[in-house]
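User: Predict the complex with adenosine-5-diphosphoribose.
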Amino acid sequence: MREHRPLVVLTGAGISTESGIPDFRSATGIWAKYDPMEYAHIDAFRRDPEKVWEFYGRRLSVLGDAEPNEGHHALAELEDRGWVRGVITQNIDRLHERAGSRALVEVHGSIRTSSCLQCGAVLPIDQVVGMLPVPRCRNCGDVLKPDVVMFGELLPAAQIARAEQLAREAGLLLVVGSSLEVYPVAGLPLETLANGGTLAIVNRGGTPFDARASLVVDAGAGETLRALAERLE
Ligand code: APR
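Assistant: Here is the predicted structure with adenosine-5-diphosphoribose placed in the model:
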């Protein structure tokens, strides 16, 4: 990290499992129980919004109880001490923000708000939770959609553009807790490598980019990031 500056961090669901939030593709992951095409695809939402909200309603209550863990806090500390230029996260749980990360790019949106696809109304999560099981727009009665990127949707343009810029300019891209299976985010390591940057991966289990990484640490996100924050003055 001392020789490869600036450091940019890319996180996935694996950094939040230690906060009690299941990831998606490990053996105990969400997609082992729910078919993402039935519960997390925009076509499924348009076809049966109540069914998708049955899934998201459960997620909102799990996310509501979660607290940032030592991995989130270590990244916020490293940012405060000038080591981290930015955190790109695929997570929608807001734990990085609550841990104090400021240079944060949420490329898959977040549960912070839900919106009406019909009239554009936007509601904060605390109002949406009060409207479960099926939050409806007060203006037009349409079922609200959580402002997270579903399969079949484009990523928020400003966020993915910022993420690509950070990846291109990174001396080191540190991936933490992601299977690097979902594009376009999984393409970010290629941006770093193509521009002469270095890749490091902290993840339980392999990823398709391990062979391109200078360092692969198969260990817990929290313990590894905590150890890193302690080693770097
Ligand atoms: N420490 C380190 N790695 C962990 C930990 C942990 N405590 N817990 C889980 N992992 C690893 C898992 O083994 C897995 O390889 O984190 C990885 C998480 O991968 P995924 O479950 O695929 O999550 P992610 O990469 O974030 O998925 C990307 O897919 O479904 C969509 O929109 C969703 O943002 C998500 C995207």
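The chain is about 35% helix and 20% strand.
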